[in-house]
């Protein structure tokens, strides 16, 4: 994670490829890809936006970011599995 943060500073505003650290570039309205010739990393525009939002949240407040991740994890773990809900109705 520290490496990702350092790479972000180097590229000032551009998101680095999570795989190799080179700059991500828009390949089409729907896709982003890594600018490195040997790297095949691609992601959708929605995933790129999520990646950017999460990276920004982590940089702004690392403790708050991980607290929100733990909260979300606990909410998901507390959910009743769908197959158990169906058994209860039957
Ligand atoms: Zn790459």
Give a description of the structure:
The protein has helices at residues 2-11, 45-60, 62-78, 82-89; strands at residues 24-26, 31-34, 42-44. With 90 residues, the protein is mainly alpha-helical. Helix 2 packs across helix 3 (62-78). The protein is extended, with a radius of gyration of 18 Å. The termini are far apart. The model is unreliable at 4-12 (pLDDT under 50). Residues 17, 19-20, 22, 34, 36, 39, 41 line the site of zinc ion.
Topology record:
Layout: H1 2-11, E1 24-26, E2 31-34, E3 42-44, H2 45-60, H3 62-78, H4 82-89
Antiparallel strand pairs: 1-2, 2-3
The structure holds zinc ion.
- Overall geometric form: extended
Mean pLDDT equals 85
In angstroms, what separates the terminal alpha carbons?
46 Å
**Spans of at least 5 consecutive residues with low confidence:** 4-12
How would you concisely characterize the structure shown here?
With 90 residues, the chain is mainly alpha-helical. Strand 2 and strand 3 form a beta hairpin.
Q: What descriptive keywords fit this protein?
A:
mainly alpha, binds zinc ion, 4 helices, 90 residues, extended, 3-stranded antiparallel β-sheet
């Amino acid at each position: 994670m520290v490496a990702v943060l350092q790479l972000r500073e180097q590229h000032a505003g551009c998101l680095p490829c999570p795989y190799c650290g080179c700059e991500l570039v828009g390949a089409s309205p729907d896709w982003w890809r890594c600018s490195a010739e040997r790297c095949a990393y691609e992601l959708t525009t929605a995933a790129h936006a999520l990646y950017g939002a999460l990276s920004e949240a982590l940089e702004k407040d690392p403790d708050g970011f991980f607290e929100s991740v733990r909260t979300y994890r606990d909410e998901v773990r507390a959910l009743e599995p769908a197959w158990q809900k169906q058994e209860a109705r039957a």
